[in-house]
Amino acid sequence: AMVVFRNAATDFIWTGAGSTVTYLGVVYQSWTAANNWDANGMPANPGTGTAVIYFPDVPNVQSKAVFGNYSATRSFASIHFTGTAGGYTIDNHQTSNIITLNAGASALSSNATSGTNTINEWVDFATAAPTITTAAGGTLTLLNIDNGGGLVTFNTGAGGVTNLASGGQNGIAGITANGTGTLNLFTVGSP
Q1: Residue 109: which pLDDT band, with cuts at 50, 70 and 90?
Q2: C-alpha distances in angstroms, 79 versus 3, 49, 67?
Q3: Which of 72, 152, 163, 170 is the Cys-Cys partner for 141 at CB 3.0 to 4.6 Å?
Q4: CB-based contacts of 36: which residues, under 8 Å, 6+ apart?
Q5: pLDDT per residue as tens digits for the range 110-128
Q6: Is 29 exposed, middle or buried (0-12, 13-18, 19+ CB in 10 A)?
Protein backbone atom coordinates (compact mmCIF):
# COMPACT_ATOMS: atom_id res chain seq x y z
CA ALA A 1 0.00 0.00 0.00
CA MET A 2 1.11 3.52 -0.75
CA VAL A 3 1.81 5.71 2.25
CA VAL A 4 1.06 9.42 1.88
CA PHE A 5 2.53 11.85 4.37
CA ARG A 6 0.39 14.95 4.73
CA ASN A 7 1.09 18.25 6.30
CA ALA A 8 -2.02 18.79 8.43
CA ALA A 9 -1.61 22.56 8.29
CA THR A 10 -1.44 22.88 4.51
CA ASP A 11 -3.01 19.80 2.84
CA PHE A 12 -6.72 19.76 2.04
CA ILE A 13 -8.64 16.78 0.59
CA TRP A 14 -12.00 17.14 -1.16
CA THR A 15 -14.74 14.69 -0.16
CA GLY A 16 -17.72 16.30 -1.89
CA ALA A 17 -19.98 14.81 0.78
CA GLY A 18 -21.50 18.06 2.01
CA SER A 19 -23.50 21.12 1.01
CA THR A 20 -24.56 22.00 -2.52
CA VAL A 21 -25.19 25.24 -4.37
CA THR A 22 -27.24 25.77 -7.54
CA TYR A 23 -25.89 28.10 -10.20
CA LEU A 24 -27.67 28.69 -13.52
CA GLY A 25 -29.79 25.61 -12.87
CA VAL A 26 -26.82 23.28 -12.26
CA VAL A 27 -26.30 21.67 -8.84
CA TYR A 28 -22.70 21.72 -7.61
CA GLN A 29 -20.92 20.84 -4.39
CA SER A 30 -19.91 24.08 -2.65
CA TRP A 31 -16.16 24.83 -2.45
CA THR A 32 -16.80 27.06 0.61
CA ALA A 33 -18.70 24.44 2.63
CA ALA A 34 -16.35 22.92 5.22
CA ASN A 35 -18.35 19.66 5.10
CA ASN A 36 -17.15 19.08 1.50
CA TRP A 37 -13.57 18.75 2.75
CA ASP A 38 -11.88 16.16 4.98
CA ALA A 39 -11.38 16.65 8.72
CA ASN A 40 -8.77 19.33 8.02
CA GLY A 41 -11.59 21.60 6.79
CA MET A 42 -11.55 23.85 3.76
CA PRO A 43 -8.57 25.89 2.58
CA ALA A 44 -8.50 29.49 3.72
CA ASN A 45 -10.03 32.09 1.48
CA PRO A 46 -8.19 33.89 -0.06
CA GLY A 47 -5.34 31.61 1.05
CA THR A 48 -1.68 32.18 1.75
CA GLY A 49 -0.23 30.29 -1.20
CA THR A 50 0.87 27.28 0.87
CA ALA A 51 -2.21 25.01 0.70
CA VAL A 52 -2.02 21.85 -1.39
CA ILE A 53 -5.45 20.83 -2.72
CA TYR A 54 -6.25 17.17 -3.52
CA PHE A 55 -9.25 15.90 -5.49
CA PRO A 56 -9.31 12.07 -5.06
CA ASP A 57 -11.71 9.45 -6.39
CA VAL A 58 -15.06 9.96 -4.61
CA PRO A 59 -18.08 7.62 -4.53
CA ASN A 60 -20.58 9.56 -6.65
CA VAL A 61 -20.50 11.74 -9.75
CA GLN A 62 -22.30 14.68 -8.10
CA SER A 63 -19.40 15.01 -5.65
CA LYS A 64 -17.12 15.84 -8.60
CA ALA A 65 -19.07 18.93 -9.69
CA VAL A 66 -17.36 21.69 -7.69
CA PHE A 67 -18.53 25.30 -7.68
CA GLY A 68 -15.93 27.83 -6.59
CA ASN A 69 -18.31 30.10 -4.69
CA TYR A 70 -15.50 31.97 -2.98
CA SER A 71 -14.77 35.65 -3.03
CA ALA A 72 -11.98 37.18 -5.09
CA THR A 73 -8.65 35.55 -5.92
CA ARG A 74 -7.41 32.54 -3.95
CA SER A 75 -3.76 31.58 -3.66
CA PHE A 76 -2.61 27.97 -3.18
CA ALA A 77 0.60 26.04 -3.70
CA SER A 78 -0.94 23.46 -6.03
CA ILE A 79 -3.98 21.50 -7.16
CA HIS A 80 -3.77 17.75 -7.79
CA PHE A 81 -6.50 15.53 -9.21
CA THR A 82 -5.26 12.35 -7.50
CA GLY A 83 -8.16 10.06 -8.44
CA THR A 84 -7.68 7.72 -11.40
CA ALA A 85 -11.28 7.93 -12.70
CA GLY A 86 -11.43 11.61 -13.73
CA GLY A 87 -14.81 13.32 -13.92
CA TYR A 88 -14.13 16.50 -11.91
CA THR A 89 -15.34 19.89 -13.12
CA ILE A 90 -14.38 23.00 -11.17
CA ASP A 91 -16.57 25.92 -12.25
CA ASN A 92 -16.84 29.52 -11.23
CA HIS A 93 -18.03 31.68 -14.16
CA GLN A 94 -16.64 34.84 -12.50
CA THR A 95 -13.64 36.38 -14.28
CA SER A 96 -12.76 38.32 -11.13
CA ASN A 97 -12.29 35.10 -9.11
CA ILE A 98 -8.91 33.62 -9.91
CA ILE A 99 -6.93 30.64 -8.59
CA THR A 100 -3.23 31.46 -8.20
CA LEU A 101 -0.84 28.50 -7.91
CA ASN A 102 2.67 28.99 -6.49
CA ALA A 103 4.33 25.56 -6.70
CA GLY A 104 6.02 25.92 -10.09
CA ALA A 105 7.02 22.50 -11.42
CA SER A 106 4.38 20.76 -9.31
CA ALA A 107 1.58 23.35 -9.50
CA LEU A 108 -1.12 21.39 -11.37
CA SER A 109 -1.52 17.70 -12.12
CA SER A 110 -4.14 15.15 -13.12
CA ASN A 111 -3.54 11.51 -12.24
CA ALA A 112 -6.68 10.28 -14.04
CA THR A 113 -5.99 7.32 -16.31
CA SER A 114 -9.52 7.58 -17.73
CA GLY A 115 -12.12 10.32 -17.95
CA THR A 116 -11.64 14.09 -17.97
CA ASN A 117 -10.88 16.63 -15.26
CA THR A 118 -11.81 20.22 -16.18
CA ILE A 119 -11.08 23.62 -14.66
CA ASN A 120 -13.53 26.20 -16.03
CA GLU A 121 -12.03 29.25 -14.36
CA TRP A 122 -8.92 31.42 -14.44
CA VAL A 123 -5.71 29.83 -13.16
CA ASP A 124 -2.71 32.10 -12.73
CA PHE A 125 0.75 30.70 -12.08
CA ALA A 126 2.91 32.77 -9.77
CA THR A 127 6.12 31.24 -11.18
CA ALA A 128 7.55 31.98 -14.60
CA ALA A 129 7.86 28.33 -15.69
CA PRO A 130 5.04 26.17 -14.30
CA THR A 131 4.49 22.55 -15.28
CA ILE A 132 1.09 20.99 -15.94
CA THR A 133 1.03 17.18 -15.90
CA THR A 134 -1.61 14.83 -17.33
CA ALA A 135 -1.34 11.07 -16.71
CA ALA A 136 -1.36 8.47 -19.48
CA GLY A 137 -4.91 7.68 -20.61
CA GLY A 138 -6.62 10.65 -18.92
CA THR A 139 -7.66 14.11 -20.08
CA LEU A 140 -7.15 17.51 -18.45
CA THR A 141 -9.03 20.52 -19.88
CA LEU A 142 -8.15 24.11 -18.92
CA LEU A 143 -10.06 27.16 -20.10
CA ASN A 144 -7.84 30.04 -18.97
CA ILE A 145 -4.27 30.09 -17.70
CA ASP A 146 -1.75 32.89 -17.21
CA ASN A 147 1.81 32.95 -15.96
CA GLY A 148 2.92 36.50 -16.53
CA GLY A 149 4.75 36.00 -19.81
CA GLY A 150 6.81 32.88 -19.10
CA LEU A 151 7.10 29.42 -20.59
CA VAL A 152 4.58 26.71 -19.65
CA THR A 153 5.55 23.04 -19.80
CA PHE A 154 2.89 20.40 -20.47
CA ASN A 155 3.79 16.79 -19.60
CA THR A 156 1.21 14.46 -21.15
CA GLY A 157 1.53 10.68 -20.78
CA ALA A 158 0.93 8.13 -23.54
CA GLY A 159 -2.70 8.17 -24.64
CA GLY A 160 -3.33 11.17 -22.41
CA VAL A 161 -4.76 14.47 -23.63
CA THR A 162 -4.29 18.02 -22.36
CA ASN A 163 -6.76 20.57 -23.77
CA LEU A 164 -6.06 24.29 -23.52
CA ALA A 165 -8.56 26.88 -24.75
CA SER A 166 -7.37 29.13 -27.55
CA GLY A 167 -7.43 32.65 -26.19
CA GLY A 168 -7.10 31.15 -22.74
CA GLN A 169 -3.30 31.35 -22.72
CA ASN A 170 -2.99 34.94 -21.59
CA GLY A 171 0.51 36.00 -20.68
CA ILE A 172 2.24 32.85 -21.94
CA ALA A 173 5.42 33.45 -23.92
CA GLY A 174 5.76 29.85 -25.10
CA ILE A 175 4.71 26.25 -24.64
CA THR A 176 6.84 23.14 -24.27
CA ALA A 177 5.05 19.84 -24.86
CA ASN A 178 6.68 16.73 -23.36
CA GLY A 179 5.57 13.10 -23.44
CA THR A 180 3.84 11.04 -26.09
CA GLY A 181 0.31 12.25 -25.31
CA THR A 182 -1.59 15.00 -27.11
CA LEU A 183 -1.68 18.73 -26.38
CA ASN A 184 -4.72 20.37 -28.03
CA LEU A 185 -5.27 24.09 -28.40
CA PHE A 186 -8.97 24.68 -29.08
CA THR A 187 -11.57 27.40 -29.41
CA VAL A 188 -13.83 27.75 -26.35
CA GLY A 189 -16.89 25.55 -26.83
CA SER A 190 -15.18 22.90 -28.97
CA PRO A 191 -12.66 20.75 -27.02
Answers
A1: very high
A2: 19, 11, 15
A3: 163
A4: 14, 15, 16, 17, 18, 19, 29, 30, 42, 66
A5: 999 999 999 988 888 888 7
A6: buried
